[in-house]
Amino acid sequence: MMKKFYVILFLVLGVITFAQSVKDLDAKNGFRHIKLGSHISEFKGVLEESDFLSERANVKTYNYIGGDIKELFGVKINSVSLYFYKNELFFIYLGFEDPFELHHYMDLKKNISNSYGNKTFYARNSNGSVVNGAIWQGEKVRMELNRVDHTKHKYKPIDYEYTTGYMVIIHRELRKKENDDNL
Question: Which class for 52: exposed (0-12), middle (13-18), buried (19 or more C-beta within 10 A)?
């Protein structure tokens, strides 16, 4: 009888220990070695200035040229952009290699869900171009995985002849401050 109790206790503790959630997303606080909230000075030699979002007050955008980020769970990454608000990293963008097919999206979603849990929100946008999307939202960090078909855009459809995909990791507090500054 006591043996069964210890076996059940061990199994329950094992499940609790290995269960993943968005709390792990908050603890990770970024992507690999790139941490949200980091000062721009921590990225010397691996950034190339970009003019994307240059109209936003106190925002600087850079392309990450470190060369060490090439794939995520077997899906090729073709661009990494870092967005700084008042010199603090608040937004990480990963662009996946085109075409970004449904199986790429499903594989990434499955693997990310294994890390941060299945409790996701469905991502969508007002123009209708996001055809598949998932959001993992912690207290401090939000992660979005999106597959986009630009031909579905309500206002400016563009035929790229393929779907694109991207993932963003956002520092929620800094993003709110940045949005408030740019109202």
Answer: middle
